[in-house]
């Protein structure tokens, strides 16, 4: 289990772009489960369908990339402060299945599919109340800075 303070050690993102509130399960080299609580106070709702607030699909994909990055960092025993970043390298097979709205708890899951020469492939899915909201194959590149 990781709270937001520990998550901040593994992600360089900060409010309003830190999209993982808690990690509830992590098996290094295998998988991670966490969540993002969606609040009406999210900055994005000021401009994204403000009369009918819907959490943007690209933000859901970013949240999946962030939990994937945590999994990669933990697996390699690295942190951003060590001079490494996980950069988005690609997204494949993205599908959106349901709207995510204020009050939802967005469950985030990611599994390692492969890693080769610093390029990681993850299979991610986001659910709300057990219903699939989005899925994507995410590619991340480890970069020494």
UniProtKB/TrEMBL annotation:
Top-level EC class as recorded in UniProt: lyase
Subcellular localization, as worded in the UniProt entry: Cytoplasm
Highest taxon above the source species: Bacteria
Catalytic activity as recorded in UniProt: a (3R)-hydroxyacyl-[ACP] = a (2E)-enoyl-[ACP] + H2O
Keywords from the UniProt entry: Cytoplasm, Lipid A biosynthesis, Lipid biosynthesis, Lipid metabolism, Lyase
Active-site residue numbers: 48
E.C. numbers: 4.2.1.59
Gene3D superfamilies associated with the record: Hotdog Thioesterase (3.10.129.10)
Family annotation (PANTHER family): 3-HYDROXYACYL-[ACYL-CARRIER-PROTEIN] DEHYDRATASE (PTHR30272:SF1)
Function: Involved in unsaturated fatty acids biosynthesis. Catalyzes the dehydration of short chain beta-hydroxyacyl-ACPs and long chain saturated and unsaturated beta-hydroxyacyl-ACPs.
Family to which this protein belongs: Belongs to the thioester dehydratase family. FabZ subfamily.
Protein name according to UniProt: 3-hydroxyacyl-[acyl-carrier-protein] dehydratase FabZ
Taxonomic lineage from the root: Bacteria, Pseudomonadati, Pseudomonadota, Gammaproteobacteria, Cellvibrionales
Gene name per UniProt: fabZ
């Amino acid at each position: 289990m990781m709270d937001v303070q520990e998550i901040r050690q593994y992600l360089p993102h900060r409010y309003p772009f830190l999209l993982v509130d808690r990690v509830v399960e992590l098996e290094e080299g295998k998988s991670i489960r966490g969540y993002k609580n969606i609040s009406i106070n999210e900055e994005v709702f000021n401009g994204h369908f403000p009369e009918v607030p819907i959490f943007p699909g690209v933000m859901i994909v970013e949240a999946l990339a962030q939990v994937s990055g945590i999994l990669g960092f933990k697996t390699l025993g690295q942190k951003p402060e060590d001079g490494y970043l996980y950069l988005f390298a690609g997204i494949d097979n993205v599908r959106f299945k349901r709207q995510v709205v204020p009050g939802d708890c967005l469950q985030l899951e990611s599994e390692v599919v492969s890693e080769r020469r610093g390029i990681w492939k993850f299979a991610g899915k986001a659910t709300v109340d057990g219903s699939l909201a989005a899925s994507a194959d995410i590619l991340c590149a480890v970069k020494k800075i």
